[in-house]
Amino acid sequence: MRALNKLWNSWRGLFRDPIQPFGIASVLLLVALAIAPAKDHFSEWHYYQHGYLRLIKNRRDAAVLQRHFEPGIHQIWLPDLGVVDRCETCHLGLTETSLGDIKMEPYSRHPVIPHSMQQFGCVMCHRGQGVATTVAGAHESALSSDGPILPAQYSEASCGQCHHAPLEGTPTLNQGRFLLARYGCVRCHTIKLPDGTSMQPADTPPPLSHIADKTTREWIYAWLRDPKSYAATATMPNFLLSDNDARDISGFLIANSVPEPGDTATLKPPKAGGSVDPTAGASLYGESFCASCHAMQNAAGNVVGGDLGPELTAIGTKVKPEWLTAWLRDPRNYDAGTPMPHYRFTDQQLALLTGFLESKTNTDLLANVHLDPATPAQIAHGKKLVEEYGCASCHEIRGVAKPDNYGPELSQIGSKPVAQLVFVKGMPETLPAYLSTKIKHPRIFGPGLHMPQFSFTPEQVDALTTALLSLTDRSVTLPAKLQIPTPQQTDYEPAGKAGQLMADLNCMACHRINGHGGTMAPDLSWEGSSVQKQWLDAFLKNPNTLRPTLIRRMPKFNLTDEERAELTDYIMTAYQNPDIDRDAMPLSGYSPDQVEHGRELFYGKYACQSCHMVDPAKDKGYIGPPLTEVGSRLNAEWIYLWLKNPQKLRPGTIEPNHDMSDDDARALTAFLMAQKGAGSQKTGTRTASVSASGTKGAGE
Amino acid sequence: MKRRAWFRSSLVVGTLAVVAVCGCSRVHKKAPVLHATAAGSALVVSSGDRQLAPSGSPLPQPLIMQVNDNQGNGVTGALVKFSVPAGVKIDPAEALSDSNGEVTANVTLGNTSGRYVLTAMAWNKAGHPISVQVPELAAGYQEELGYQVQRKYCSRCHDPESTPEQVSNHDNLAVPPHSFDQGATYNKLSDADLTAIIGHGGPALNLSALMPPYGSTLTKADIQAVIAYIRLVSDPPYQAPGLVYAKQ
Known about the structure:
The complex is a heterodimer of chains A (about 700) and B (about 250). Chain A is an all-alpha fold and about 700 residues long. Chain A contains 34 helices and 6 strands. Chain B folds into 2 domains: about 40-140, Immunoglobulin-like (Sandwich), CATH 2.60.40; about 140-235, Orthogonal Bundle (Cytochrome Bc1 Complex, Chain D, domain 2), CATH 1.10.760. In chain B, a hairpin with a 5-residue loop joins strand 8 (about 115-125) and strand 9. Chain B is elongated and about 60 Å long. The interface between A and B is large, with 48 and 52 residues.
């Protein structure tokens, strides 16, 4: 009681009026309560919401926009994806279709994409800090693994977090992934994909264990110093070696090389019999369609041809003639993994081709290369360098083991925190800037770096950066149902004697069969359902083409009659579509009325002549293959089913599906089967053109 | 009394703010001042206008402007200034013409898809400005997809230009189609018209059957994407009907 009294007295001593303290307390409380709304009022997002209201106030669509507007903080919360996004608090026009004319941020409309924002949120694609409600906090901060906002230039990287197969709308990403494989980046840097597979290289670096059979130490030296000095299209990067290092590595590679048994060193290049036309070699090069895979500089100075094999502009300066002959005779003897086919050239042809290729030289390349014989110390140093630079990551080299993970793994490089990166002075300190600078100038980040110098164009650098940025932490943790994996190649190999023959010819370097093989030439999985046997036999004998605009064509192999019969039988038997009975419709004997009706449909209702030729004198269409002899080439049932639904027989073909009635398709089939060509002898060559153009009813 | 004090203090704060802002902006605008040594009579785009690139990315080719005299010869040392819409970056923003009369600038597009109109400016001898508008096109995902789809399915017929990789079929057609940037044709067609032609072929709108139907070959999204692409590249630019613009 006494204590209470004492307290009361001191309280009264403090305040004259005992009610006063409550007044003060309530004022304080009011101020405290006002802090939050005041903070709100002066917050950035509030400012932007006001700005939005001002922007839409005078528009004619104001009523609608105002109805959609809700004040306050907006949030998208997707627990599955780990997304909490408040971006729409300021980005108020994202879903307003009528705001297409507004380019001012943060109010512009979002470009049309195949996903809804409510389903994926914003940071999934744009990164940044979704929960932040200030401009700097959301866009620039690197607090969570999402880091700062991703520059729009690289947005395709975000698609790549789920879409591991190429997408039609993401050309930059597709190109970047292609380059990672094509330039062998993934030989040194492991890239594991969320489905557990690893990205595979798509280059073919040659083995170096027998290199002395093939070329000279001088050429190796010049090549090592700068691969581009030999071939403008060289894919091997420049290791920026000093003269001495290039001297020692070339010394080691030659000293380390052992002759390949049955290869070349002892073989004399055959001489062409009699006097030969000097252009004969060039013609043979052309007829063999070497340019489908190899590029060569032409008279005008342009490098033309494919890029599956190396450029041949100065091949005579590189390879020894006896090696070249042995290589052309059977490439697999020197390099078991080469995609180069075994052509079965005659000795005469070998001599012609060797002569032609050896005449392709660049005398400047080796003019100033003078190397003294390598000393044992230099050779030992050369070996040390070969190990240090990880040459065996790409090339098979006798006595040097392939290093495991020579370069750092890049499986999640797209989420690497900025704090873990090294920057050079003057560059923006962001991950995309780091990646693109590293790709452009790999060695500027410090001494002792070994990554070689590539010479990518700015577009290629952007593409590679995009592909690397797609490899995020997030992509690994996303729910499995969102992952769209790359289609895996099967390990199909044709069987039996024909299979051996096809392996020898390397058919599958270009053709895909049952999910395995190249994509340069048509898929042959259902070839037996599609073509007529006589045609196939004639085509293999002489695969000419009438379509001069195509660079890539089927080469002519000197097959024996037995080999051809073997192949034809195998293709006609093994490569059939199980749902197609190729004999269900006859090859001929259609009624003239039906043929005539088909002709009317062809030129009238379906206007097929816009892409195809039946009568070369009159028709000009030049997108699809000519159909002048299609009745001698394709089976009627195949044509009928193709007309009904082309994409079912060849997914992705550009031939439009016309939703044709059965009657129309039958009449058109009758008309097309009547197109037998000028004469049956010529069928082999002329109709061959049609298929050699790589299409059979498709476009390119 | 009170109001006067409030007025006075806000005047002081205001003046201070103005001074501060001016000071700051002066610090920022310290770019070297270029002095023209010559003047032309015409400004033309030499190359690099109407390029299509993904939004937010640099244009593949630089924009090259040329200052000419009245004989059409390049003038060296004339000043060219660019002004760009919000979101677009240009480097350099101003320069003197080189020995060919040319000024070369690298352009990075804004982050939103659509048409961006840059303005290039030069001054003639009398000091009057000559300005040229340079449109550039930014493709978002949809327009990019449309570009890819039309390149695969349509451009062989619709684009009269041939390249080594793609020989044009345009001149082989009895009724030649229009190239997709021909606004004079396409702007007259509504989205519904275009969807009908592309989906059901030329006969859907009494056009030639040489225009094939794609309704069972392409998805709806693909067709919309192609239309978005056509709308983006059309020249003169397409204005959507019913699109509401701000009252000026």
